[in-house]
Amino acid sequence: MRETEEISLAESRTSARGERDASDVEQSDVNAEQTDSRQIESKRTKLCVLIGSGIIQLPIWGFAMSYGVFQEYYFDNWMLEGDRNITGVIGTTANGVMYLAMPFLFALFTRRWAHRRQLAALCGTVIACASFFASAYSTTIWHLVATQGITSALGCALIYSPMTLSLGEWYTSSNRAVAYGIVLSCKNIVGTSCPFMLRALIDAYGYRTTLKAWTAVVGGVSIFAIFLIPCHPSKVSIHKTRARKIPWHFLRHRSIYFYSIAIIFQSAGYGIPQTYLSTYARNIALLSQTSGTLMLAVFNAPGIIASSFFGWLSDNKRITLSAQTVSAIPPVCCAFSTFFFWGLTTQGGLGLLIVFSMTFGFFSSGYSATWGGMLKQMERESAERNEAVDPGMLYGLLNGVRGIGYASGGLAGVGLLKAGTISANQRFAYGTSYGPLILFTGLTSLLGGWVVLWRWNPKRLLPVVSRWLGALMQLRSVPRSIETTSSIALSTV
Predict the structure, then answer these.
(1) How far apart are CA 335 and CA 361, in angstroms?
(2) How many CA atoms lie within 13 A of 382 on its CB side?
(3) Contact status, residue 105 vs residue 176, Cβ threshold 8 Å
(4) Are 354 and 296 in contact (CB under 8 A)?
(5) Is the pLDDT of residue 11 over 80?
(6) What letter would DSSP give residue 243?
(7) 224-256: b or e for each residue (b if 16 or more CB lie within 10 Å)?
(8) H-helix or E-strand containing 61?
């Protein structure tokens, strides 16, 4: 009897173990399925965020990158009160205001108001739409400056800042630069297509109707894209936790200052061709109106490839280039393109002007994609010192610095255009009224690449400089020695 009870008890224990093992297996299968579904959902959300970030570049940058078309129209069909030369400030002012507002907006939506990002972007859409619609009824030049240059830019910045923060949080540091590069490529697609679209609308319906149509585009596209970019789950309930101060330890590092100075110089020169290339092609090179629009499109088109390329170059592990080297390549190449291509164009010289537009557009558009490498380097420096850092805040600060460059470049451009010609051959662009602008663009671009000198050791640099100086002194002494030898020979004769 006892043996029977023991056997039945053992069988019950065995069956219980079997049921427990089976339930554990089922539970592990359920957990695995939940993990897979979460990963699939996460990938799907990340894809939607990337698509939404690409689409939203149209309402944010479409007007600013195509403003040269409007400026050309204002020059040829001036109907407002005031000096029409001030229209050259509107495009650079819009870019400057957008970038200057970004550090404050990034700081605001990084933690405390992170859960309100989509609402803030919708408010920015309303502001931008109201500004563009109001600009259609402008009667003075200052109405245009206020609506197209300031308030619309603030609205676009309010769309851009929270959405870009969400993009940077959905993509980690390992592939963030690539994501930024893809989005910047979409920005350049906008800059390539919008000039033709806006030019066709202006020619067919006039600039007032075009601005009303653009208002509808900004509203519809923005609302659709905003709902594709949700806030990252880590930031949804962060406002309920105890507020943590934004870490400012990175201000003790030299990197932020060298990169900021380089960005200011590069941005000051970047906005000049974007604003004046269309009018230069029409008034100085004596090209057709279509050629002026083509210059803007050709200027922005290479950036489609350049942004992705430099983003890949910043994240690439096979070609080990430092962040300084990668960030120095675009501005230095822009400087050479300005000096040798734009400066040497002649009347009717469409070919060289297209070459300038393509080369300058390629390298200047790719510059923003190198910021992913800058952020990665500054994050690494903070990690080495065991310091906290907020990449979103860093990105917003770099954008603010860029705004300083845009605003200063725009103000300098108006003054340089009135400065007159420089002492150069009138046959080339250097000898025209755009000569000072060309020199300013080239020099600021060249200074924007000086950040690569940061890693150079001055002790190693001094011998190189001394050798060059010695070689120059020898070259200067050669003609003197020749003159001395010839005088001795003559006296002997």
Answers:
(1) 12
(2) 19
(3) no
(4) no
(5) no
(6) P
(7) ebbebbbbbeebeebeeeeeeeeeeebeebebb
(8) helix 57-65
The residue whose two tokens read 């676009």 is 156
CB 97 within 8 A of CB 153: yes
Which of 88-102, 241-255, 460-474 shows the lowest mean pLDDT across its residues? 460-474
What band does 3 get if pLDDT is binned at 50, 70 and 90? low
Joined tokens for residue 55: 């689409």
Whether 417 and 434 have beta carbons less than 8 Å apart is answered as: yes
The pLDDT-based confidence of 232 (bands split at 50, 70, 90) is confident
DSSP alpha helices (H): ranges in 66-175?
A: 67-76, 87-110, 117-135, 141-144, 152-170
* pLDDT at position 490: 39
The pLDDT of residue 141 is above 70: yes
Tokens of 244: 């943590």
Read off the amino acid at residue 295: M
Beta bridge partners, 140, equal: 81
Region 231-247: mean pLDDT is 65
What is the arithmetic mean of pLDDT over 311-332? 81
The predicted structure's pLDDT at residue 24: 52
| Helix, strand counts (H, E) of the chain | 19, 0
Contacts of 379 (CB under 8 A, 6+ apart): 173, 389, 391
